[in-house]
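A reminder from the course coordinator: this example appears on the midterm review sheet, so study it carefully.

Given structure:
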């Protein structure tokens, strides 16, 4: 059975090892995130970091395949860049105090920068302000934060994801077709 699993996974591993860039990325051209005005650029990362940075990445949890995949990508790119990265997970979206303490602990241990998959849009603002004042770069990852003191953002457009899901359902169930039942699970505020 292990041989069959290995054979089934082999094409996926080969695909994952291939160069993934250049990658088209939508960059907001005006206003705060999210915005409907975007420019598409082909993102190409650096080959290596200038030095062996010590970074910490913070996730809300590692309970599902989404955050496991984000972790995989960060770990793989960290290795490719030649940086040291420690991963922290807060155990769930209801654990903002835990995420705040983890970030403080990591920075106190000498991290050069932090990558934050925020639990709360506004809940980390004062901490991000303090990190900015200390010269610690903050990358806003996936969920978004309201602070204007972050150094970079790599976000998911939940507005776009919702639109695309609705568009897909509308194609499956046109107005002239049979009515469909749809459930909506909005998640945490």
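Designed residues:
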């Amino acid at each position: 059975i292990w041989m069959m699993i290995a054979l089934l996974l082999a094409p996926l591993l080969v695909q994952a090892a291939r160069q993934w860039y250049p990658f088209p990325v939508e960059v907001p051209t005006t206003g705060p995130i999210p915005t409907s005005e975007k420019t598409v650029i082909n993102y190409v990362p650096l080959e290596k970091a200038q030095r062996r940075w010590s970074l910490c990445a913070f996730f809300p949890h590692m309970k599902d395949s989404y955050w496991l995949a984000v972790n995989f990508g960060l770990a793989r790119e960290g290795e490719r860049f030649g940086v040291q990265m420690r991963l922290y997970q807060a155990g769930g979206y209801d654990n903002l105090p835990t995420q705040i303490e983890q970030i403080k602990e990591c920075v106190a241990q000498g991290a050069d920068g932090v990558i934050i998959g925020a639990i709360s849009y506004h809940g980390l603002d004062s901490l991000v302000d303090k990190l900015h004042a200390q010269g610690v770069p903050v990358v806003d990852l996936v969920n978004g934060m309201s602070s204007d003191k972050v150094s970079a953002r790599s976000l998911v457009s939940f507005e776009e994801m919702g639109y695309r899901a609705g568009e897909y359902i509308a194609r499956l169930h046109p107005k002239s077709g049979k009515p469909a039942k749809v459930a909506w699970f909005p998640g945490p505020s």
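Residues 43 and 54 are 23 Å apart (CA to CA). The chain is about 40% helix and 20% strand.
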